[in-house]
Amino acid sequence: MSHRPKDRPWLMRTYAGHSTAEASNELYRRNLAKGQTGLSVAFDLPTQTGYDPDHVLARGEVGRVGVPVAHLGDMRRLFQDIPLERMNTSMTINATAMWLLALYQVVAEEQGADIALLQGTTQNDIVKEYLSRGTHVFPPGPSLRLTTDMIAYTVRHIPKWNPINICSYHLQEAGATPVQEISYAMCTAIAVLDAVRDSGQVPKERFGEVVARISFFVNAGVRFIEEMCKMRAFGRIWDRITRERYGIEDPRQRRFRYGVQVNSLGLTEAQPENNVQRIVLEMLAVTLSKDARARAVQLPAWNEALGLPRPWDQQWSLRIQQVLAHESDLLEYDDIFAGSHVVEAEVGSLVTRCLDEIERIEEMGGALAAVESGYLKARLVSSHAERRARIEAGEEKIVGVNIFESTEPNPLTADLDAAIMTVDGRVEAGVVEAVTRWRAERQESADRQGGGDPFVFPTVRQALERLKDAAAGEENLMDATLECVRAGVTTGEWAGALREVFGEFRAPTGVSSAPVAVAAAPGTPLAAVRAKTARTATDLGVGRLRLLVGKPGLDGHSNGAEQIAVRARDAGFEVVYQGIRLTPEQIVSAALAEDVHCVGLSILSGSHGALVPDVLERLRAAGAAELPVVVGGIIPGADAEALRAAGVAAVFTPKDFGITEIISRIVDEIRTANQLDPLEVSP
């Protein structure tokens, strides 16, 4: 056996958080006891988008995809008995990143920690939110200011903290090619660094410290060689940009530092046991090459395409990392790909193509201008549509989905309802009650303080007024945010005050400008669906069928909705798609105003149980009970049955990967709802 010295393993994390702060704290402590070496906090959608649990848009979303944190009390409970001074914590938070960092800092101070020793990361990449994840709140300019202020503050006060994680992970999930993933992430980094430099908040001689704290969060897909070469290209381009554009001479400050979550997009509902080997291959792409190895790795669980993983599923993913790091000889060798002419050629090609795309975006005015013009979103929607078309045509093969589909009964999913974790619907009511109680108790405390010095004991109102004054001016917003935390302000109140000053932003959908990805030439499946769509419109006496694609609640994962909208458009529908974050009331109003023939709802956050019945009830109350409603998302079998029993015409889940077939079935549901005979049109 070799006695070579081994490199230090990467940070091992699992992305976790659900239901309540207390339940999530228990999960974190159990995971740390199992050998996890860092925390990765998943926040629920109301927290991510700046709403309190009792806001109308938070209905059905509380505690679903992460932990709800509405105020300082929640943050205390989330990290109870976890010494933050000795912890490395990653928080997946963007629009409200400043707020969550302020909460984290105050909890650390209450623990007696030296905040200068705090280590961790706030994702804080707002650009990709406009393009893929959809948890943005404010317009690009104010969002960039929040990021800039956080970076300047951490350099001065929390120097070991990574204030931003440039996140290309969701770009790949939205369809980005390796060139797009690298280029868009680098353009985001340029926009952020330029803003910090131009703000004047960091002295020129300390700008290297800013660059050194910029980290990245990437996606590793199953194309092993391509992904490994992508990471090497990332590092080379970052080194070049930081040296040539910003004059950073210290190679340690130019180091490309990244964490990774391996691809969840490629996980399948069909034969989900195959997801385990996919996860392993994807992890190898970011660990096997020493010169491009991730500093932190978190793996999804095998059953994430089915629903929320259980603690045991997360443990399995942690053990995958531990076996690789501690049982294999991976960490004993220098880079085993150094000198490979195949790798060098691929990396060189990626670097050249990425630099060309970066230059193209910079000529447009940079990343923010390319977001506002819709260029970046349209490119992503287009590339995702092309990928889906390749899968449907069988050109891109996915085992268990479009090849080798026959399978033995799966003991892992024999009881599907027990194979995933579900959040008790009563949790939301408890969280809503708790935030109401928090507001009442802080008011009682403020009343008891009486005429105390407002600068020592600011009231909630005073803290929020100071925040708004700071936002309207030019001072760094972190101090005013910390004052809000200590005064007992809630997440929704903090974000609401900034909404008053900054306004809100609805990002371009990219649907209208996306090119046709699937041909409708005679004899093709799409041509057949186009004929069926046209025939049905004629039978109904209308020019075109109209489909409303709606995203109720706070779920910002819009990739599926966008692909349905694009394919329906290409099949001859008039598509009404207003983007993400709508209430059931708004969706029903739009359906009635546009006189649509079908409503399609897309929900991936697990809130379908509350939001879909609300839409159905509002349609019935408006006298439109006959209007067919179809639903798509990660929906367990029992939930799908309940939705159909409630009146949903059809439920689509990830196993329904054929988008053209989905559109055909939507036409069938329109014919059934209008008492038209079934219509089969051959390609």
Automatic annotation (TrEMBL):
CDD domains: MM_CoA_mut_B12_BD
Cofactor(s) the record lists: adenosylcob(III)alamin
InterPro entries in the cross-refs: Acid_CoA_mut_C (IPR006159), Cbl-dep_enz_cat (IPR016176), Cobalamin-bd (IPR006158), Cobalamin-bd_sf (IPR036724), MeMalonylCoA_mutase_a/b_cat (IPR006099), MMCoA_mutase_a_cat (IPR006098)
Gene3D superfamilies linked: Cobalamin-binding domain, Methylmalonyl-CoA mutase
Assigned keywords, A-Z: Cobalamin, Cobalt, Isomerase, Metal-binding
Annotated family: Belongs to the methylmalonyl-CoA mutase family.
Protein name: Methylmalonyl-CoA mutase, coenzyme B12-dependent alpha subunit
The species this protein was found in: Streptomyces clavuligerus
Gene from which the chain derives: meaA
